[in-house]
Amino acid sequence: MKHATATSALAQAAGEARLLARRLGPLVAQARFAAAALVPGNHGRRRVGMGENFWQFRPYRPEDGSRRIDWRRSARGDRFFVRERELENAQNFFLWLDPRPDFDWHSSPGLPTKRERGALLLLALAGALHRGGERVTPLLSGNASPGGAFALDQLAIHLFSAPPEPPFPQNGRGAYILVSDFYEDPSVWRSRLKAFQARNRKGILVAIADPTEVDFPFAGRLRFSAPGGGEKPLVERAETLAPAYRAAFAERRAAIRAIAGETGFEFAAMRADEPAAPALARIAALVRGPR
Amino acid sequence: MSALADLARSIGLGFGAPWALLPLLALPILWFLLRATPPAPKQVELPSARLLLGLESTERTPLRAPLWLVLLRLAIAVLLCIGLARPTLNPPGASDGKGDLLIVVDDGFASTESWERFRVHALAAAQESLARGGKVHALFTALRAEQRDVTEALSVDRLRALFASRAPVPWLPDRKAALVALEQGKLRPARILWLSDGLSHDDDAFGRGLTRIAPVLLRSADLAGAAFALDVIQKPAGRAIVISRPISDAELNVSAQIEGLDGVPLATAEGRFKSGEVRLELDLPIPGPGAKPVLVRLAGPENAGRVRLFAESGARPRIGLAVSGGEEKPLLSDFFYIERALNPHAEISRGRIAALAKSKPAAIIIADEGGLPEAERVALGEFVEKGGVLIRFAGPRLAAQADSLVPARLRTGERALGGALAWDKPQMIARFTEDSPFFGLRPPPDALVRQQVLAEPGPELTASSWARLQDGTPLVTGAARGKGILVLFHVTASPEWSDLPLSGLFVDMLRRVIALRIAPDVAAKNGSAGRENVAPFPLLYALDGEGRLSRARPDAPAFRPAAFEALSAGPMASPGLYGRGGRTAAINVIPPNAPPRALKPPPEMSVASLRAPPRRDLAGWVLGVAMVFAALDLLVALLVKGGRRIVGTGSVISKGHNRFWSAILTKWRNLGRDLRIGARPYRRPDRRPDRRPDRRSGTWAIFALLAAGFAITVGPFVREARAQEVGDPAVDRLQPSVAMRLAFVRTNAPEVDKAARAGLLGLSRELWRRTSVEPASPDGVDPETADLSVYPLLYWAIPDGAPALSPRAAQNLNEFMRNGGALLIDTRDGGGVSSTPGRRLGAILTGLDAPPLERLPERHVLNRAFFLLKETPGRFPSPVWVEVQSETRGRARANDGVSPLFIGGGDWASAWAVDERGRSAFPVEGGEPARELAYRFGINLVVYALTGNYKDDQVHLPALIERLNR
């Protein structure tokens, strides 16, 4: 029911993401993320295997079937040669969108919520990766990993039903793109990312913040509360607190960035009110890697 | 607290529940709380709020609520307290209480200025008494032609109507009679409210009588500045008005103006009461020539007591002063007094007797002429015979040589009284006897007659003696000659023989004599000027309570002229101008000998001011203002909460934002959300439109609050205003003629009328739809009273048990049919003439001028007027009877052979009837095809009623065209 009514809105988001992805062009992930995977794809593994590109000729062995003999090469000499190709497989990207109510929040109705913005970016990224020949998989709770034809609409639905913590699929080899505001305690994220690191999983952290969270444009006597609950700090004169808050915010960002660096993750930060295309380009640059 | 209450009472403010004011003592505390406690923090959502934990604000001073907001809320609190304490303006006085209330109202002329106040006080007191369960009675003290039952228990509306219909009367209240009526009514009220005009009317017993019955609260009109026109007196120099006033403790300027019948001031006089004076005589100027003064009026408030009507103010008679013989010099001194006496009231001309007689003045005055020449005597004789008044004065010449033009035979020589050689003393004038034209005048005691001519005693002398001296000798004799009158003053016109010319009596006597000319038949009767035979004077102009003259109604009373002296104003003797043929008399409001004096209430009577407005409840207003303030506060809160972008986050207003209002608003919003949640459980993507209704609903909440407050405070006034609106009957009468419409005859059966109206409505709709006939909505008419000429077609469904047609209705209907109207009579029984209404039809239609009828022929125009019809079904198949067409029946074809009458039993209206949604109201025998035919019949009928035999002529069209072509 929930999904059914949301479908049209999601389809709209998916459409928007498609446009963005088309503008970005095909996206091929950098080799750093290319963990060994059994899925055919674009990433040459510099060894013999299934693929399209020539890798080497090797002398015929009796166990090879006669159909494997490369007759053109063999004709130049007396021996039979077999043509071998380079093993190529696709990079798998796992996407996770923070489902907490804190993340699904915007400061004014004119802005998208952080989650909506994250979904848009992820979907656009997924579209671009798909066109680049990569595989994209939403992280779902448990070990479920949806297969089937690639469809942004479907992907969007899965993105919005992500579990509150990024899980590890059993066959979860690939890169992880985790989108959140990272307001949870840094220690929480440290332990999570350490776990990723332990399994040699890498990826990108995308931090999305609402402009009011960055700028703190408040004044007067205010009681703050987070949508997801928690403590409700009372501030007597918010305007005097703004510099301290901004410093704390920057500090938090720096801590997350540091944790990401420790654990082999890339880190990108963006505001919910900035245009989607440049934000997407920043993430894409991280995916592509330095070339 | 009680000191406070006393203070409030002294300014006319009282509280119904003063203890509700007690919380006002806590105001300083409230001030402290509102001001010192920081405003509740504004709730702000911020997901990164946890980042704030552990941050220390550099400023710890809490914000204070802005001053104006504190004051606004304090004002709300104060107004609430005051409103709940039920404040009233002019709280109830000592006489207020439970039980029946008697309202005594002086409705004499002196109440005109206070009448509106009387009304307000009476209504307020009645309202209050009724609200407490007591009965209300009213006693009006002035006599009226129609009697009122004092014991009648009144509603407020009835009392209002009484006040509306009883404007103060132009006479004095009769409190004696009122007290008698009260005692006869055996009323036992618990308290009495006396709305008095403040005058005693020489009756203090009334006040005592009232206090014996119940405690009395007297609200008395303010007499400061009051003055009354007591009398108009004749002074040698002219008229003077006597003004009196009931209280004399201050100076008072008065101005009097003389007015004509049209109310235009002719002349004014001003005067001044000194302190302590209650009576003032003010000389009135003589208005210019040609002016006809009718009354003198004191400038100021309009009331009948300030108006004095003149009597004898008719046309100024022309008086001729006869200058006989050649030289006229020595006679002038005689005429001097006559002229002075007559001057304001008559036009005086002089001339030779012959010339004067020819010019036909009202009267000719001859002073001391004896032995008139033959020619002059004849001329004068003719003048008198034709209705003139000849007034002669005695003198030495007449005494020496009398002639025949005198009423009584005179002795030669004069009689001197009181001279050195005479025994007699100078004589006073005797009181006038009742048959004298001078009756009612008062002879002044100081007017002495020293010399006179004597008449020969005889039987006729007694009759012709109009005035006598105290010794019985005649002073004035008069006799009718032909149509005229001959009058002789037995003294000179100069003060030589008597003091009479110097007294005011002289003027009055002269004027009365001259006035006799107006009614010459008076004197003609049996040789004497008997007053009892004078025709009564009808009321010409009536004076109302406000002192305005208006033309009297034809049934106004009339009185004999002599009666006026004795009459005093009252319901039977309306004050005003009476008169006939130029002579006038007046009944004035105040008797001259009874100047109005101020009322001295008995000591046990409690007295209150009339000027103080009656008690008024202020709670509604105060609470209303509090509500407006609260709405204002809510508006402020709403601007902060819902309009973050309007005001800006953290602006001044938001600092004072109140937790209470925000809680209410949150509730409100949540309610809206909850209501919507069933329909749209997933609201994330359309969050933007989701918020807007919240703000709008908040705005509506404010409007609703304001509207409620407005309704509470203003509602009663609106209701009152609406109650005064009245329909304009002229418009209603016009309405049927503005648009063409069908009509039905209203019967005594409501359901039949309802069906008829619905039927004609349905038919009208079909006419709109199918033809160019576009009737307005149908009317129900009463054939007895309605003007039927505006309706082309009248539908009359006869219910069972219909009464016979009244002659008037029959006549009206006959006229209607004669003038081209069409009447469809429907027996609603399927057309069997044998059925009950059919059989009764003859009886019901008594008096209806019905033509001979026949069954509708197939080729009748009615069958072809619009649709081609073969049958005429209604709800039942039914034949229609129309006027016989064949001319051989010998009846003149009225209306060009168009039948004015259709009789059938199809119950067509039911077939045509539609309900308010346009659906058919009744089933029809034969179903929809039959209904269609019924509509077609109806359309044909209307078209036939409107166009007559036009379609009949269409038959001849080919022939006509052929003839044109030829």
Order of helices and strands of chain A: HEEHEEHEHEHEHEEHEH
Mean pLDDT of chain B: 76
Structural class of chain B: alpha/beta
Query: Helix/strand-derived class of chain A?
Result: alpha/beta
Topology:
The complex is a heterodimer of chains A (291) and B (966).
Chain A: H1 2-24, E1 43-48, E2 54-59, H2 71-75, E3 81-89, E4 92-97, H3 114-131, E5 135-138, H4 152-160, E6 175-180, H5 186-198, E7 202-209, H6 211-215, E8 222-225, E9 234-235, H7 238-263, E10 265-271, H8 276-288
Parallel strand pairs in A: 4-5, 4-6, 6-7, 7-10
Antiparallel strand pairs in A: 1-3, 2-3, 8-9
Chain B: H1 2-10, E1 13-15, H2 27-36, E2 42-45, H3 67-84, E3 87-89, E4 101-105, H4 115-131, E5 136-140, H5 156-165, H6 175-185, E6 191-196, H7 205-213, E7 216-220, E8 228-235, E9 238-244, E10 252-259, E11 265-273, E12 279-283, E13 295-298, E14 307-309, E15 318-322, H8 332-342, E16 347-351, H9 353-359, E17 363-367, H10 374-385, E18 389-393, H11 396-400, E19 410-416, E20 427-428, E21 448-449, E22 451-455, H12 459-464, E23 465-468, E24 474-481, E25 484-489, H13 504-516, H14 520-524, E26 537-543, E27 549-551, E28 558-559, E29 576-580, E30 583-587, E31 606-609, E32 616-617, H15 619-642, H16 644-647, H17 652-655, H18 659-677, H19 687-723, H20 729-738, E33 741-745, H21 750-770, E34 776-781, E35 793-797, H22 807-818, E36 822-826, H23 836-844, E37 853-855, E38 880-883, E39 901-904, H24 908-912, H25 927-947, H26 950-954, H27 957-965
Parallel strand pairs in B: 4-5, 4-6, 6-7, 7-31, 15-16, 15-17, 17-18, 18-25, 33-34, 33-35, 35-36, 36-39
Antiparallel strand pairs in B: 1-3, 3-32, 8-9, 9-12, 10-11, 10-13, 13-14, 19-22, 20-21, 23-24, 24-25, 26-27, 26-28, 26-29, 29-30, 37-38, 38-39
